[in-house]
Task: structure prediction
Amino acid sequence: MSEKETGQSGGSPEASGVTVSDIQELIQRKEEIEAQIKANYEVLESQKGIGMNEPLVDCEGYPRADVDLYRVRTARHNIVCLQNDHKALMKQVEEALHQLHARDKEKQARDLAEARREAMSHGLGQSQDLSPAQAFAIVNSISPGSPASIAGLQVDDEIVEFGSVNTQNFQSLQNIGSVVQHSEGKPLNVTVIRRGEKYQLRLVPTRWAGKGLLGCNIIPLQR
Result:
């Protein structure tokens, strides 16, 4: 085994940079070493089946003449070196796999944590969206045949939204009055709460036989 080959077998991939391709390269090198070990064992097998431990001298202590001693010694030396390289390479493969799995586990944990944060954020947004809308005014009278009556408004309806006016921007009844004046003949979306249920109505401020454009009386809701 040359020093160059031995040097290539040493040195593990950086812990932070190991990739699947790195592991595949290590496995390829392992297979190459195993092929070399097999080839050297075949050399020993060709020398009358001599193995790694059989004596190379005869019973009288003379070098055996029935085998190629140089080839046997070279094959044995190569096998020992290659087996050491194989052992070191297997350790590198094990460490690389451990590093890759640990990194994947960390990534999965990060992804799971991120998914949980998004789910919690989404759930919080939903809970805010689904929270009961707060009414800011109430209908305390309606004239028969008026635009309000035709739209389906009823006494004690709690107003959650009246056109562009809602709980967040309502300051006074002048807000509603301004919307009505600028929406004559145009449909307004009106959201009310009636006996705990939410209703969407379309009210068209219109001149009629009675007073005003709505024909109802609305007062601020006192909480």
